[in-house]
């Protein structure tokens, strides 16, 4: 019986790996970040049920680590693929962690004594981490990573570590290895759109204009503000919030003509969570079209309206900085033709999805194609929606197109069964 490689360990990749492994086939789960989990691990709640995101994801992460048929490779990237279906050889490179994965027990003593603080990617840049760190408390594997770029070599982490798991730079190094597998699943996920490309919205020029992912970390109980949304300019609670939709989606001026599918519901979810806790908070949602297409999504949208969230069909031409960190924007309600001037305390840009970084290189390495939007192409959307032009290589999740968590999980399961079929034939 053959083995399977899953590239990318977000929720789609984890689901695919678990489905294959539970059928008795060996799986190699490959992730370039220090922990598996992907973007879903950054979320507080999921729509339309408002369930805790990590309550759903964390058991899957732990199951993937404990399953005897799954081998995890974190901080690892694919550099080459040769062979055909039933007989692929992957060339991989593992980047140094500078912490022993066998000795570290995840206690965090090294993080407590580290004097260096840098922006935390997991918190979308609105929080900080140490030079030796865990991206978040529930990482898998539960092992710290030392950031050699920002480490000042003070030696405190070496001294405090009882198991002597922290390695010196020359004790851990980048190394290459190969894997032989029957089939490959590509679940490399997505990146969020860089809102700086929409210069009229003044993201990063006005401190209280933030992205939806940054806002997600602010309202998350494990986030840098303990779940209380605050203005980045002065740390105060905003008295009104404006959500601006379709930033980096459905916009031909920046070569993003496609809809990112989740932005409407993502913003509605956060607006509902805010309004339920802060009934006096004024919330406005500026939109082009509300796309509530999934099961229970229209009812969720209606719930937001019933709570008093203001939906205005129209997008602002520009966001302007006023005196004393104030914000002003003018929008035309295209349903009533009325002009409305808003002075929110906080503006949240609902940024869209775009292909994962290095996806061009990944497609070239794997010998598969990309579509006009830059995501990986499917062989046939109706007959084989997880297949590619190269037999034995399958795609799943947001690597194929923007999609929500249920659709990503479903497609991960579909790709798993295709890969499993190849494995049992070889």
UniProtKB/TrEMBL annotation:
Belongs to the HdrA family. Keywords: 4Fe-4S, FAD, Flavoprotein, Iron, Iron-sulfur, Metal-binding, Oxidoreductase. One of its GO terms (molecular function) is oxidoreductase activity. The keyword 4Fe-4S applies. Its cofactor is [4Fe-4S] cluster; FAD. Its EC number is 1.8.-.-. It comes from the Archaea. The ferredoxin:CoB-CoM heterodisulfide reductase is composed of three subunits; HdrA, HdrB and HdrC. Part of a complex that catalyzes the reversible reduction of CoM-S-S-CoB to the thiol-coenzymes H-S-CoM (coenzyme M) and H-S-CoB (coenzyme B). InterPro entries: 4Fe4S_Fe-S-bd, 4Fe4S_Fe_S_CS, FAD/NAD-bd_sf, HdrA-like. Residues 94-124, 141-171 form the 4Fe-4S ferredoxin-type domain. This is CoB--CoM heterodisulfide reductase iron-sulfur subunit A. Pfam families: FAD_oxidored (PF12831), Fer4_9 (PF13187). Pathway: Cofactor metabolism; coenzyme M-coenzyme B heterodisulfide reduction; coenzyme B and coenzyme M from coenzyme M-coenzyme B heterodisulfide: step 1/1.
